[in-house]
Design brief:
444 residues, Rossmann fold, N-(1-d-carboxylethyl)-l-norvaline Dehydrogenase, domain 2, six-stranded parallel beta sheet, 14 strands, binds uridine-5'-diphosphate-xylopyranose
Length: 444
């Protein structure tokens, strides 16, 4: 059944959600007050890099299933469901999430909210936010408004696919009617066998931060093992492989390296700690502070390794391969790669950054850092190359050819992504986090 819905906020989450529901056959109106963003989307251009999203956007604009507006009007008030997708960034004054945009979104929606419409939040929020939002909305309208929570688990780089075919759909509801409506919204997905879980609203809010905390913990766990492996003469990559074969543990999110970043994991674990402390149960997630500390230590470890090889870094030419927080995105928010680049820069090194997609963002946010558009010129004269994001282009790069451009064949594999023996065979010295590669004999 085709439903008319509005998607409020067209950032990463909102733009992908709007396109996905339009592609699944619903009639979607995307709303965002940012005119530049809106005009770009309406013209079929996604304002960030996300594989497949632009083609899908063009398709749903052509089918008439997705349209855009800068504000609510008589037409958007006909929507049966309003999905809140605005950002909840880290607060400027603390570690918690700033939920202002959600309250602002409700203020804009309230005058056009129909009595029979459901407001469903998708943004990541501190547990308890939905209840505050419901209270706020009730003070703005003269009927009891309906609010549900419906967390989103999409990953950058595979966002569209994750939205069209997620592992699960979670809906937090208070009323059977809201459940029925959300079940209709997700019917094209649940018809393909995707499970839908119905929970209470606080659980729905918690599921998202709990899932992200678990993922962050898994990454920091293996990175903590990497710290131990480094001093014990062990190999964190082999260790990960061995423990990951235990089905109870699993091998996903168990890759050691310079750790996690992006717009979600770091912000979400900090926000979770802040909320738990507010609720008087800070101890329960105190370990997340250690998860973050491990994560940050791995970044600094790269600089230490470079110093162990080169001594003082002042004036040394360092090439950073990858700026995005992970491959297949141009997002550099809280990127471990950029943190490493900045630390080299602060140590006095001459830093050059390469990335297949994120350089425009790098130039905007870090105008002081040098960038290079192509790989060969990026490594030209490098005394050390550091792999910080495991783009395919780097994993498949030819070490023999790159070796001709550098001054010193020394690479730090910050993602444990390289075919070490191929690089060693091309006479590169490979240093990697959590590994003792000098012990691996070169093949030549
Ligand atoms: C994450 C969650 O995965 C997603 O479900 C949620 O909706 C939003 O937050 P995303 O931010 O796109 O998604 O990134 P993710 O794929 O989780 O990767 C996060 C970071 O962890 C990246 O910097 C990545 O390089 C790093 N990572 C991941 C590791 O260091 N090791 C791993 O084994 C896996």
């Amino acid at each position: 059944m085709k439903l008319k819905i509005s998607v409020i906020g067209l950032g990463y989450l909102g733009a992908t959600t709007a396109v996905a529901f339009a592609k699944l056959g619903h009639e979607v109106i995307g709303i965002d007050s940012d005119l530049t963003k809106l005009e770009s989307l309406a013209a079929g251009r996604v304002p960030f890099y996300e594989p497949g999203l632009e083609d899908a956007l063009l398709e749903v604009i052509a089918s008439g299933n997705l349209r855009f507006k800068t504000q609510h009007d008589e037409e958007t008030s006909e929507a049966l469901i309003h999905l809140l997708c605005v950002g909840t960034p880290q607060s400027k004054t603390g570690l918690g999430a700033d939920t202002t945009y959600l309250f602002n979104a409700l203020d804009a929606l309230a005058p056009f909210l129909n009595e029979d419409a459901l407001v469903a939040g998708k943004s990541t929020v501190p547990v308890g936010t939905a209840a505050e939002l419901a209270k706020h909305l009730a003070s703005k309208v003269d009927f009891p408004p309906h609010l549900a929570w419906n967390p989103e688990f999409l990953r950058e780089g595979t966002a569209l696919q994750d939205s069209l075919l997620p592992d699960r759909v979670v809906i937090g509801v208070k009323e059977a009617w809201a459940e029925k409506l959300l079940r209709l919204l997700y019917e094209p997905i649940t018809n393909q066998g995707v499970p839908l879980l119905v929970v209470d609203i606080p659980t729905a809010e918690l599921v998202k931060v709990a899932a992200n905390s678990f993922l962050a913990t898994k990454i920091s766990f293996i990175n903590a093992m990497a710290e131990i492996a480094e001093v014990a003469g062990a190999d964190a990559v082999k260790l990960s492989e061995a423990i990951g074969m235990d089905e109870r543990i699993g091998n996903k999110f168990l890759k050691s390296g310079i750790g996690f970043g992006g717009g979600c994991l770091p912000k979400d674990i900090r926000g979770f700690v802040a909320r738990a402390e507010e609720l008087g149960v800070g101890q329960a997630v105190g370990f997340l502070k250690e998860v973050e500390a491990i994560n940050l230590r791995r970044r600094s470890r790269v600089i230490e390794l470079a110093q162990e090889e080169l001594g003082d870094l002042t004036g040394r030419r360092v090439t950073i391969l990858g700026a995005a927080f992970k491959p297949e995105t141009d997002d550099i928010r809280d990127s471990p790669a950029m943190a490493v680049a900045e630390q080299f820069w602060m140590a006095g090194a001459k830093v050059v950054i390469h990335d297949p997609k994120a350089l425009e963002n790098v130039r905007r946010v870090y105008p002081q850092l040098e960038t290079a558009n192509d790989l060969d010129s990026a490594v030209q004269g490098a005394e050390i190359v550091v792999l910080t994001t495991e783009w395919k282009q780097y994993r498949e790069a030819d070490p023999i050819s790159l070796g001709r451009h550098v001054t010193n064949r020394l690479i730090i594999d910050g993602r444990n992504a390289l075919d070490v023996s191929a690089w060693q065979a091309a006479n590169w010295q490979v240093v990697a986090l959590g590994r003792n590669l000098d012990r691996i004999p070169a093949l030549v």
